[in-house]
Amino acid sequence: MSLKTRILGLAATLLVLAATASWLAYQQLSEDIIQRWGQQVAEIQVRYDSARLLQSLEREIGLARQMADSSALVKWAEQPDNKALEQDALRQAESFRTNFRDNSYFLALRKNNHYYYNNARNEFAGKQFRYVLDPNKPDDAWFFQLISQGRDFHLNVNPDTELGVTKLWIDVLMRNEQGDIVGMVGTGLNLDDFLKDIVDINQDGITTLFVDHNGAIQLYRDRNYIDFATIVKPEGQKNTVDLLFDEPEDKQQILGMLAMLKKRSDQAGQVESGFVTVDGREHLAGVAYLPAIGWFEITLLDLNTLVPRSYLLPLVAVFLVALLVTLLLFHYIIQSRILKPIMGLESAVKRVREGNFSLPRLDKPDNEIGRLADHFEKMTLSMKDSTRELENKVAQRTDELSRLARIDPLTGLKNRRGLDELLDEEIQRSRRQDNRFGLIWLDIDHFKAINDQLGHQAGDEILCRVALWLKAGVRPYDAPGRWGGDEFVVILSPCDAHTLSQIANRIRHSVEEESRKTGTPVTVSVGGYLCQPGDTSDGILREADRALYEAKEQGRNRVCIVSRNDETPVPETEL
Ligand SMILES: Nc1nc2c(ncn2[C@@H]2O[C@H](COP(=O)(O)OP(=O)(O)OP(=O)(O)O)[C@@H](O)[C@H]2O)c(=O)[nH]1
């Protein structure tokens, strides 16, 4: 796998890992933030809603309590048939009516179960006695139930069928000095107005409801859930708060919170919160106990509406785009600073390995790779120089060897190989140009005897001297050479019969004369042949050898020129 593929793979893996980690962190963090925030908001909202309810009710409850404590009312309740007391009491009740927010009151006497009522329109002035409460009538059960429970104060959401209104009733027991219950007074608040003020708040995602100490729903925006006349309903038939939740664990959680808060009712301002599912949506529920009225306030926050996670999505998008840009940048840097220079370097190394020292322009980023490329370039240049130098030396050496291979080391003349090559060239030229050339083959006479008498060293010196005389005796463009032992060959080109004879004789004479001067006289026998176009190398040598043989045969120290049958041998000519 190439480095580029690996780096791209690594970058892609990193991208996926980073994106996954970021997404998980975002999920966790956003949930955490929303939970913390939600819990604080839930607590604030619960306290705020509780305060609003209590603020609305406190004054009414206070007035109802004052009314229940009114001595005129208590006295009359003890003697309900006393008309004077009745007048007094009803006057008193009417004064309370004008103070109640709803400008209405009710008054029920235990002794005769008489129920009195007047409303804002003073509709029942002078006829406040409305009816007699019947213990066997379900609509009147509230009165008897409250007295039997002996709870001094009670809030009751109840439709009054006689009066045709649904109200939130504030019921306060009247007690005489001995503490006996003598009746009940209170006022009612129009439920619709009250719900509008306290519960139907126009805040998206926030639901407020109130439940009584048993968990029965008392104030809720959906009237169908309100547990009207809860006091007279047996347990199990009440619309309790758990009806709002889908999951059994949520129901248990909420009921558990109610129980816990009730237990800690002495600690003011306690709020419990937890996550629940309502209508399939996750909500944060905040619950507070209101000891003043014996109710619980529950606030449900739909967190997805209040703080949709999508709010934070642009953040994730920005992060992902930043990540992508970073990776692209990373890829660009890796590509331009590492991969491209390395690939260039690799192809350069390949070229050099194949013997091509001309490098393309290498990328040299300002890093280790750039420095490596620089070193490689310099190394290649130096290799190129030394290779060229080496090649030159080898060529020189080869030329030298080639020259030496064609030179006789003793005399410095061409050796047999050099003469062979030259002979071939002359044969070619003769054929091409249709001209003739001469070949002289000479041999020192009785050289063996010289060697034997004077020694091999002296023999060598004589060979060298003969070579010098030979060179001096030919034309500058003729080629003398040592064929081997004491035999020499001269190629004369161009040449004719006369020149051949003339030079052959001059050589023979020169060796005889010059050697005499050295004190060691030697003579040579010379054979000559005038080569014709079309002659072969073997034929030429054979003819020259034959001429030399003739010269030897005729007594040595003489020249013998042979020619083809159609030519006359040239007689020896003295110089
Ligand atoms: N000193 C010396 N002697 C050589 C060299 N090469 C060959 N010889 C000797 O040269 C002699 C050649 O003798 P031949 O050509 O056979 O006979 P020759 O004595 O010259 O007699 P003819 O040629 O018949 O006149 C031999 O004794 C070789 O040993 C050499 O390089 N140096």
TrEMBL record:
Single GO MF annotation: diguanylate cyclase activity
GO annotation terms (biological process): signal transduction
Domain HAMP: 336-388
Keywords from the UniProt entry: Membrane, Transmembrane, Transmembrane helix
Residue spans crossing the bilayer: 311-334
Highest taxon of source: Bacteria
Protein name as annotated: diguanylate cyclase
Organism from which the protein derives: Marinobacter santoriniensis NKSG1
